[in-house]
Amino acid sequence: MPVAALAAVCVGALAALRGPYVRRVDIPVEGLAPELDGFRIVQISDLHVGPTMRLAYVQRVVDMTKELAPDLIALTGDIVDGSVTRLAPHVAPLEALASGDRAFFVLGNHDYYSGAAPWTAHFEAMGFRVLRNAHVTIARGAARLLIGGVIDFAARMSDPDARPRPDLATDGDARPAFRLLLAHNPKIAPLAEQAGFDLQLSGHTHAGQFFPWTFVIHLVHGPHAAGLSRRGRLWVYVSAGTGTWGPPVRLGTRPELTLLRLVAANGPRRR
Fold this sequence. Notes:
- The chain is α/β, with parallel strands linked by helices.
- 25% of the residues lie in helices and 24% in strands.
- It has seven helices and twelve strands.
- The chain has helices at residues 2-17, 55-67, 84-91, 109-113, 116-126, 189-195, 213-221; strands spanning 21-29, 40-44, 72-75, 103-105, 129-130, 134-140, 143-149, 178-182, 199-202, 227-231, 234-238, 256-264.
- The strands form two sheets. The chain has a six-stranded mixed beta sheet with strand order 1-12-2-3-4-5, covered by helices on one side. Strands 6-7-8-9-11-10 form a six-stranded mixed beta sheet, with helices on one face.
- Mean pLDDT is 88; it is low at 1-16.
């Protein structure tokens, strides 16, 4: 038994440190504007740059992201586990993804633990748009894409009144648009649906990361524990995490770099 356990840990460590793999997900959207059909979003989540996720791993993620040629890049929180002073050299490759006003970032609970203010300033200096209960609208031809982002529940550590507000992340903008919400914690989905979003991208759960949490996570996060699910008209995608937190072990899950494509629900699909 000890030998089997050691072998499992070794396999899990190899899976964690050799990651991520590219997971491709199509999001079927009714009434999608033709200009947005095939729109490509790369999601990087729960990278957890720190003791085990270092410069070489981050560079691998950046190189893989470039190869996917995304239209938009979404960092959905828990990117770091440590201070700007210690980890700035290790996150530096991410700056290569921030050109062209296409890269967006929302903080996760570990980003707050690591210093929300200095990390926000650092990522903004790198060129990322950090969304805190706010949104940005971009145009693609005649189509509009609204990208909202909310703060994490962990913001209450410094401000007891702070909470994620998807309603503020739309700012009452009622003009036709596809509405994308970046929210680290998938539990925000009911509020996102009420606010009228079409797609929520989240992380946080790591899909459990390793047994037995791969089962427990479904009890904690219900229908939005991992992968693609739906709540009313809202699609929710929860990444299993691009990196790994704590012990660098993956058993029953794999670290993923996610490529999501918007596709017309009843129309031709383009690769």
